Amino acid sequence: MIKLTEYFWTLVEQLPSLLTMLGCMVFAFMRWKRHPKVSLVVIAGLGLLFLHVIVFMFVYDLVPPMFFKTDNYENTVTLRRNVYLVLGLISNTTAVVCYGLLLAGIFMQRKRAPQFE
């Protein structure tokens, strides 16, 4: 029960970001007929970013305790640093993929600006 409450409050902390993502997904869906490819890529990027937030909320809570079952303090400090380093790298790499999709959708199929001489 306590864990469920912690997850709830973590989601509440992320609520402004999650609502913004949902709002942007609705906006992109409303523009589907006008720009179907752009909307698809934007919705995919935002959807993956939405999932990223939720998945890594659980990953950061459930994965580290699997590695911290040692009694040696020196080992624990190094292990803790390494576990969080790897989790951070994985989290940031997946976020980059999500943001890359989002940026690709935003800037794809743009018309060239007229060249002035």
In short:
With 117 residues, this protein is mostly helical.
Low-confidence regions: none
- Mean pLDDT figure: 88
Please give the radius of gyration in angstroms.
20 Å
Report, as a whole number of angstroms, the end-to-end distance: 68 Å
- Gross morphology is elongated
Sheet/helix structural class? mainly alpha
Q: How many E strands?
A: 0
The helix/strand series, from N terminus to C terminus, equals HHHH
Strand content: under 5%
Count structural domains. 1
Helix content: over 70%
| H/I helix tally | 4
* Largest pleated sheet: none
- Quaternary structure annotation: single chain
What does this entry look like structurally?
The chain is mainly α. It has one domain (2-107). The chain contains 4 helices and no strands. Helix 2 (36-62) runs antiparallel to helix 4. The longest helix is centred in the C-terminal third of the chain and has 35 residues, at 73-107.
